[in-house]
């Protein structure tokens, strides 16, 4: 059973917002974070971390993606700690190749490749009070998904009513370019793995239990993740 810090089970959470909102603004950051987050600059120009890639290499990895339905801009890698750049790492696991393991304590998501190796992505995760752990699976996938604010959010923020019929896909949509919807026993848990174009959110606890990857990373993971893929959220 998925736990949410012991505060509520999945059934209760299903009536709560997919992503909580603390600001009246309808910009992407308020939709995703629900509170003002002062992160500051995470990167040090020219720095090379033993766990990271050189920024010049990362700039190529996170280059613009003009071929998308909504062209994705390049990531400003100077705003990221190099340890959150996508890379192949040693990762011992008994899980089958393709399994996704999320480590919220380290702000990393791993895709198991087998033979003691995994692809590691930097991530943002649930903020305090919204952390959970357990085993789920990918029950649905969507490219440039529609996002619909829940009734509770509309009651709190009447300006969100304009999206009651669904916010069309696009760069300003809270779910971004790709979304993997997480299920348990055939029921949607209200949690997703989604995409963001904001590098300053990577390595932070800001969501209501969802996990965010940079758009370029999410496109990579999405293409290699079929329906029914096992997802494990580790305790924080």
From TrEMBL:
Q: Name one GO cellular component term.
A: extracellular region
GO molecular function (one): glycosyltransferase activity
Q: Per UniProt, which keywords does this protein have? A: Cell shape, Cell wall biogenesis/degradation, Glycosyltransferase, Hydrolase, Peptidoglycan synthesis, Transferase
> What is the protein named?
L,D-transpeptidase
Q: Its annotated pathway? A: Cell wall biogenesis; peptidoglycan biosynthesis
Q: Which domain of life is it from?
A: Bacteria
Q: Where is the L,D-TPase catalytic domain?
A: 98-234
This protein's species is: Methylosinus trichosporium (strain ATCC 35070 / NCIMB 11131 / UNIQEM 75 / OB3b)
User: What are the GO BP annotations of this UniProt entry?
Assistant: cell wall organization; peptidoglycan-protein cross-linking; regulation of cell shape
Which PANTHER family does UniProt cross-reference here? L,D-TRANSPEPTIDASE, L,D-TRANSPEPTIDASE ERFK_SRFK-RELATED
Q: Which family is it part of?
A: Belongs to the YkuD family.
Entry keyword DNA repair: no
């Amino acid at each position: 059973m998925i736990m949410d810090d012991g505060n509520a089970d999945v059934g209760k959470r299903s009536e709560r917002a997919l992503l909580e909102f603390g600001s009246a603004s309808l910009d992407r950051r308020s939709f995703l974070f629900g509170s003002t987050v002062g992160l500051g600059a995470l990167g040090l120009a020219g720095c090379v971390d033993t766990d990271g890639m050189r920024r010049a290499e990362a700039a190529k990895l996170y280059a613009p993606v003009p071929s998308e339905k909504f062209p994705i801009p390049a990531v400003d890698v100077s705003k990221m700690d190099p340890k959150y750049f996508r890379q192949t790492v040693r990762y011992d696991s008994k899980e089958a190749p393709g399994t996704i393991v999320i480590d919220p304590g380290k702000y990393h998501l791993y895709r198991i490749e087998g033979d003691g190796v995994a692809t590691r992505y930097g991530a943002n995760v649930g903020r305090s009070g919204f952390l959970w752990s357990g085993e789920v699976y990918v029950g649905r996938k969507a490219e440039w998904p529609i996002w619909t604010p829940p009734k509770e959010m509309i009651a709190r923020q009447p300006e969100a009513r304009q999206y009651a019929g669904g916010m069309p896909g696009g760069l300003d949509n809270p779910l971004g370019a790709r979304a993997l919807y997480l299920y348990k026993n055939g029921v949607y848990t209200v949690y997703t793995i989604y995409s963001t174009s904001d590098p300053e959110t990577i390595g932070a606890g800001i969501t209501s239990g969802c996990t965010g990857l940079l758009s370029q990373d999410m496109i990579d993971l999405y293409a290699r993740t079929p329906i029914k893929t096992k997802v494990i959220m580790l305790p924080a």
